[in-house]
From TrEMBL:
Signal peptide: none annotated. This is Homogentisate 1,2-dioxygenase. It catalyses: homogentisate + O2 = 4-maleylacetoacetate + H(+). Pathway: Amino-acid degradation; L-phenylalanine degradation; acetoacetate and fumarate from L-phenylalanine: step 4/6. It is an enzyme of class 1 (oxidoreductase). Fe cation binds at residues 312, 318, 348. The gene is Hgd. Its cofactor is Fe cation. It comes from Pomatorhinus ruficollis (streak-breasted scimitar babbler). Belongs to the homogentisate dioxygenase family. One of its GO terms (biological process) is L-tyrosine catabolic process.
Length: 416
């Protein structure tokens, strides 16, 4: 496999240049009259110029040709992508997909005869702003303007708005993709936890600069998403021609095994928010546009407590996915690569078998979720299944609701 270098830190000011061109970064300024090596200076802004310094996101790229050099964009056939909320009726019912489709296709893209990921959107979210990729099977070699990242199952990566990237896959590949519009992902506040815990900033990895100076007539297709629709433009040079860059607006990846788990050690459950890796906040304090939450291996020690997730309804929409193993609250029927959607205020919780088993279990310290990794995309907005997703009946479990039907009353009143 590939030996790639990374820089560590979340939201840091990073500086990188391809070692083939030492001194490519201008000294002491961003856009000199003439850049080293005759490069073009280009700023990529991820926030308004006037955002406060702590939230201002931008990077300077020094490239062989500016990204403006392409033919006009033309509409691209959308396939399974949809932005039309009216093509399906709202449905508050619980939805589960037994197993996801294997997503890979062959063919020349960006002038190379490699395999590329075919992204099929099951959930209808908002417009593309930030893409969080969660591979479940197969390895992804992601090339960006900032450099390359190798992303494997149990890792995630985030590609931010405006960044050009392509994905090479090797054999059968599938995973989950979250698109968020309106806010940057950030690390959740820790509050009384203190300075350390959950996802630590140093464990996030950013690619180092890497460029290719290639020209292939008509060989590169740049696909852009605009107002929910896809457009394509042609260019004859590689979009990955950035020789050096600096800034704090970057792609990054993170290994989920690095997560420092916090858990209850006396009784009852702590809220699942303690498992939040990344959050995209709304303007309302404590309410997320999107959270990325994981349920990693951990110890369960709570006394006099029903230890699996409890039954609940809440004001968030929850899409659950499984990277490996068996989900602790539904061991049968929910396979790696599958998913479930529980819309806001729709009740859900452990299936009947899980409830009966956990209610009678001897409460000893135990390992929970060993060999597994489940996650959740959670949002304060409504989510819907696409028309394509509803029509793939061979993967949708139309009997999902039946997993709760065997639940029986244990009510024993002390009066007649």
């Amino acid at each position: 496999w590939f030996i790639l270098q990374y820089m560590s830190g979340f939201g840091n000011e990073h500086v990188s240049e391809d070692p083939r061109c030492p001194g490519a970064l201008p000294e002491g300024q961003n856009n000199p009259q003439v850049c080293p090596y005759g490069l073009y200076a280009e700023q990529l802004s991820g926030s308004a110029f006037t955002c406060p310094r702590p939230t201002n996101k931008r990077s300077w790229l020094y490239r062989i040709l500016p990204s403006v050099c392409h033919k006009p964009f033309k509409p691209l056939e959308e396939g399974h992508l949809t932005h039309d909320w009216d093509e399906i009726e709202p449905d508050p019912n619980q939805v589960t997909m037994l197993e996801g489709a294997l997503l890979c296709q062959k063919g020349p893209t960006a002038g190379q005869g490699t395999e590329k990921v075919a992204i099929i959107t099951l959930l209808q979210l908002l417009c593309l702003h930030f893409v969080s990729t969660v591979p479940q099977q197969g390895k992804l070699l992601i090339t960006t303007e900032f450099g390359k990242m190798l992303v494997e199952p149990n890792e995630i990566c985030v590609i931010q708005q405006g960044m050009r990237f392509s994905v090479e896959v090797f054999g059968e590949t599938r995973g989950y993709i979250l698109e968020v519009y309106g806010a940057h992902f950030e690390l959740p506040d820790l509050g009384p936890i203190g300075a350390n815990g959950l996802a630590n900033p140093r464990d996030f990895l950013v690619p180092v600069a890497w460029y290719e100076d290639r020209q292939v007539p008509g060989g590169y297709t740049v696909i852009s998403k605009y107002q929910g629709k896809l457009f394509a433009a042609q260019q004859d040079h590689s979009p990955y021609n950035v020789v050096a860059w600096h800034g704090n607006y970057t792609p990054y990846k993170y290994h989920l095994e690095k997560f420092m788990v916090i858990n209850a050690v006396a009784f009852d459950h702590a809220d699942p928010s303690i498992f939040t890796v990344l959050t995209a906040k709304t303007t309302r304090a404590g309410v997320a546009l999107a959270d990325f939450v994981i349920f990693p291996p951990r110890w369960g020690v709570a006394n006099n407590t029903f230890r699996p997730p409890y039954y609940h309804r809440n004001c968030m929409s929850e899409f659950m996915g499984l990277i490996k193993g068996h989900y602790e609250a539904k061991e049968e029927g929910f396979q790696p690569g599958g998913g479930s959607l529980h819309s806001m205020m729709t009740p859900h919780g452990p299936d009947a078998d899980c409830f009966e088993k956990a209610s009678k279990a001897k409460l000893e310290p135990e390992r929970v979720a060993d060999g597994t990794m489940a996650f959740m995309f959670e949002s304060s907005l409504s989510l819907a299944v696409t028309k394509w997703g509803l029509q793939t009946s061979n993967r949708l479990d139309k009997n999902y609701y039946k997993c709760w039907e065997p639940l029986k009353s244990h009510f024993k009143p002390k009066y007649n």
